[in-house]
């Protein structure tokens, strides 16, 4: 009996090892024409069919056909149940003394706090940052498409990567989550496969790992992941994300309604020092002529137009690489540009292509995903970060911007005469898909970019007030708070204003607006209406900034309040302003 059992066991082991070998095979890369190869392996060789087996269903929160889901200990699919521990409920972790010093030393490795990241549970709870209105929406999970989540990573902090994986596993309906595909973009240290073995089987069974043969960069690494995906929808995440309660259903719902939609969650901020999970407001993602991406808060008019705070919001571009897209649509439209190097520009290119070639990009306020926000990229690239970035944004301009590329080069002179690679394939793709011209995009999708090209600006940069030695600052713009002045800072986004030839005093997509023409009234930033009136200003050299229709001048209310007001023009120094840059007068 014992020997029989033993031989059965031995047979089992041999059979299992063979199965593992079968799954450990070299996989032909999807990258053409470089024909690079990637190692592809399904950890432990577990077959995919098991994913949906009865055993899985038992070990996970029960799923009905609607989303009437039970809360479990970690709040799987329900709201998180509060727990105690560092970082729980998305709380900040503050370090003191020696621990803080140790943390500071490690900061430069990832540009976020590794000590804190390692202290926090990989299955930490989060506060639900969705609007109240989102919580009563019921999605029919059984009617939603299945999903492959793709996470490309390079030298990622293990604890941050694990939190990404666990949050997806814990907060996605089991029946919809086909797989989590990890693409290790040739990280330098550590045996990833060995480390992955420590992940419990219940999670691992949903995971695939692809390892690139050499460093590919974000776009190509993600493409490799997409090439292996079997889900109907692809969701791309950064390797330092935490998805929040019911993050997936609203994204899938948007795609289900229109397969040409690319749906992005609102990216909440995970603070890079404390790893606090901080709710973000709803904003559109936009870009400037230099192709840098910005957030543009909603104006009062926008807010008035919206039926509900839960309503999806069309956006000119994606803010970052966190988005969901129908897999067939992704393939039809040409995936990501496989000649994008390193990092930067790839999602902008994708966003323009989606819009210009028949799709649309939406922000889904009821889907929340946290992302560790850092000031700078921590890695180096062959050829350097700067030239890689210029190569990539150069491609965007050359492929998509038609004659408007001159406005890009005017705004980013460093990009002139820089190598942007071969674009013939992408131009051919553009022709094949019969995409709209950039002019169409400007008119239909992002009209407020027009009028802000370099040759249409009168003054730009920070706007300094002589008397107070402070600069115009959005402070809390977009929330219909009055605009004010604050300590001047170099290159602060909240102080980057411009005056256009049309007389608009602009910040990103918003215009300085005078609603009430009585002296002493405050000003707000509102959506640009392009009709002059409340938004038309005169200023071409240092001095007064005059509101054309009322004939009054921009003033500072007082040192205490630091708010901008309109006043009868006099020669007060509080009414004297100077922008960092002025248009050179035309030689006649
Ligand atoms: N990444 C990668 N290969 C690279 C550089 C980055 O796979 O050569 C991954 C990185 O680990 C992250 C994602 O691509 O998951 C986006 O990069 P990052 O988070 O640095 O971009 P950011 O959020 O700063 O824009
Ligand atoms: Mn990131």
Blueprint (SSEs and pairs):
Layout: H1 2-23, E1 25-28, E2 37-41, H2 54-59, H3 97-110, H4 114-119, E3 147-153, H5 158-171, E4 177-184, H6 192-196, H7 201-204, E5 207-212, H8 218-228, E6 233-237, E7 241-243, H9 248-257, E8 261-270, E9 277-278, E10 283-287, E11 293-297, H10 300-305, E12 313-314, E13 323-326, H11 327-332, H12 346-356, E14 360-372, H13 385-400, H14 405-411, H15 424-432, H16 438-444, E15 457-465, E16 470-473, E17 484-487, E18 497-500, E19 505-507, E20 510-513, E21 524-527, E22 537-538, E23 546-547, E24 552-556, E25 564-567, E26 577-582
Parallel strand pairs: 3-4, 3-6, 4-5, 8-14
Antiparallel strand pairs: 1-2, 2-5, 6-13, 7-14, 8-9, 8-13, 10-11, 12-14, 15-18, 15-26, 16-17, 18-19, 19-20, 20-21, 22-23, 23-24, 24-25
Helix pairs in contact: 12-13
Uridine-5'-diphosphate binds at residues 152-154, 156, 185, 215, 217-218, 221, 238-239, 320-321, 342-343, 374, 377, 379.
Give a structural overview:
It is a single chain. The chain has 588 residues and is α+β, with helices and mostly antiparallel strands. The protein folds into two domains: 49-372, Spore Coat Polysaccharide Biosynthesis Protein SpsA, Chain A; 458-582, Trefoil (Acidic Fibroblast Growth Factor, subunit A) (Trefoil). 26% of the residues lie in helices and 22% in strands. It has 16 helices and 26 strands. The strands form five sheets. Strands 1, 2, 3, 4, 5, 6, 7, 8, 9, 12, 13 and 14 form a twelve-stranded mixed sheet that branches. Helix 5 (158-171) links the parallel strand 3 (147-153) and strand 4. The N and C termini lie far apart (105 Å). Bound molecules: uridine-5'-diphosphate and manganese (II) ion.
